[in-house]
Amino acid sequence: MRTLPKISTSSFACLPVLALLTGCAGLSSSHADPAPVADCLTPGPVQTRVLADKASGFTPTEARPAAQIARDLAGCLGARDPVIRDQVAYEGLTQLLRRQALTDNDMRALKDQFLIDLSGDDPDGVLRPFAALLLSEIIRADRVAPYLNDEDRNAILDAGIAYFKQLDDYRGFDPVDGWRHGIAHTADLFMQVSLNLAFDQKDHLKILDALALQITTTNHAYTHGEGERMARPVLFIARSGT
Q: Which of 85, 192, 92 is nearest to 136 (CA)?
């Protein structure tokens, strides 16, 4: 996955949690009912369409509107092929969200689908980490131009925390399967929550509690930048005065 810019931790060295971290080596227009995602897990028509979308820079057209592109891409997050999953689905959805190419209803439908993905079956261990990563983009979009309500925001944070706390698949990058990186991806979600002013101190404390659980794990040594990714929400929470 792409790495985020480094943030200096020198101003926060006194925080115990940071001391631990530095040692770590069409979409439905309905809010409630997301449209079922198309089959993109294996080569076929959907993969052909999204590869064409990538070739066009994920540029919507009258014949291929943004909501339709996003719906197909959302169905590709669980693809075993890392090119389809990361370089097409994740990249395309991120571009559409950051360009503000989707309507509020489109984004809420994506949110509903990603929440289903985050709590559903994931035999290959690739869907849930990428659902967490895309939920971070959903929260980022809400920070830039609010469109979620408090119930939506709480549902995203609670689902992210539940996933993060039970996470015991610490695989980062695999040369065949690509990135999983569930710890880092969920930490990115927590970072976006920590930056979003719609969340408050109690939400920040929930994040710190969840992070402490994985920071202190003795089951795994982090080697793919997870420590730095987990440090970021801690830093932003510290800056907020929580």
A: 192
Q: What pTM does this model have? A: 0.84
Could you give the CA distance from residue 21 to residue 119 in angstroms, rounded to a whole number?
A: 27
Count the residues in the chain. 242
The HSE-up count of residue 183 (CA atoms within 13 Å, CB side) is 27
Token reading at 104 = 């509020």
Give the span between the Cα atoms of 67 and 26, in whole angstroms. Answer: 5
Q: Which residue has the tokens 């131009």?
A: 145
Cβ proximity of 116 and 35 under 8 Å: no
- Structure tokens that stand for 235 in this block: 């830093």
Indicate the burial class of 14 (C-beta count within 10 angstroms; 0-12, 13-18, 19 or more).
exposed
Q: pLDDT tens, 177-189?
A: 889 999 999 999 9
Cβ distance 40 to 47 under 8 Å? yes
